[in-house]
Amino acid sequence: MSLGTAPTSTGTRGETVPTVPPADMAVDTADVNALLDRGRSLAAPVLRAAVDRLAPPMDTVSAYHFGWIDAAGNPAAGDGGKAVRPALALLSAEAAGAAPEQGVPGAVAVELVHNFSLLHDDLMDGDEQRRHRDTVWKVHGPAQAILVGDALFALANEVLLELGTAEAGRATRRLTSATRKLIDGQAQDISFEHRESVTVEECLTMEGNKTGALLACASSIGAVLGGADDRTADLLESYGHHLGLAFQAVDDLLGIWGDPGSTGKQTWSDLRQRKKSLPVVAALAADNAASRRLGELLAADAKSNDFETFSEEEFATRAALIEESGGREWTSQEARRQHAVAVEALAGVDMQEEVRAQFVALADFVVVRER
């Protein structure tokens, strides 16, 4: 895959900045926030009821993870995340001509699987902060993070299968397939950390599994529960898959250059974890002076025993080289490209134009977000 001509440095020299692509895209924030709020409000009671089924202490550990209580067990109004997946599940029900409420079990199931993955990912990556507070493994220990993650995955299947309908069975098959791909993606991501070389194509495949699969499921599961045929569900799934690739490309940009005040993570977060994220892989493939210097530094980093003692300046230098190599700009353009492909997939779905416009608005939101 050609990376094109590497752009000249923008002068940020690796400084964290909040802008993500495309800066000139207008997003109807009020409309998107209404969709996200609807997803939260309709899914939240069912999600809480599902979590309440868990045996102690997993119920309270889950409640902490979702931001409903603090570490001491007191009620809290924590940041529950962006809620893009629940919003997509409800919207996909409407795409099938059903009421948004018909997609609620799908919204809850997808949210449970997403949080199962977050609990395990935080532990595997050693992340100590999520949504501006300590992660579950940091507060309650690794064992609880593993057990609660497993329990949330089991609950996701229960929420769907207890509906007892043919549509629920179809929806569950899509969810389990998406979960397997998600796990494949996480395994690929971890393996990349121990490899000197990863291609852009390999990185995109990994991100399509790790992020694209569940967003694809979220974009189609409500439609399945609403009685849509496989053709409609597959087109919506394609929208979600490419939206997931755009989403992850933006995440990769934020993982290096995001504002910690917005992301809730450390500066240079992905560089600290030696992640072979898309900007890094694209930069290394660029074959220019900055790219070659970056490769030398990263190869030395892989052999270093004191990587965790690196200064902010050392991480900033690596971020600047990624930018000078063209990795930042290429990833920005890839986010735009995947966004366009996602929107194109909607053309084959027969749905109300208002619903179509809301799908597009959510896609726009994904590529201009700052966290």
Automatic annotation (TrEMBL):
Residue numbers spanned by region Disordered: 1-21
* Gene Ontology biological-process entries: isoprenoid biosynthetic process
Matching entries from Pfam families are given as: polyprenyl_synt
**Is the keyword Metal-binding assigned to this protein?**
yes
Do the record's keywords include Nucleus?
Answer: no
List the InterPro entries hit by this protein, alphabetically.
Isoprenoid_synthase_dom_sf (IPR008949), Polyprenyl_synt (IPR000092), Polyprenyl_synt_CS (IPR033749)
Any GO MF annotation of the entry: metal ion binding
Q: Write out the entry's keywords from A to Z.
A: Magnesium, Metal-binding, Transferase
| Sequence ranges of Polar residues compositional bias | 1-13
Q: Which family does it belong to?
A: Belongs to the FPP/GGPP synthase family.
Q: What is this protein called?
A: Polyprenyl synthetase family protein
Look up and give the organism this protein is from: Streptomyces montanisoli
Species classification: Bacteria, Bacillati, Actinomycetota, Actinomycetes, Kitasatosporales
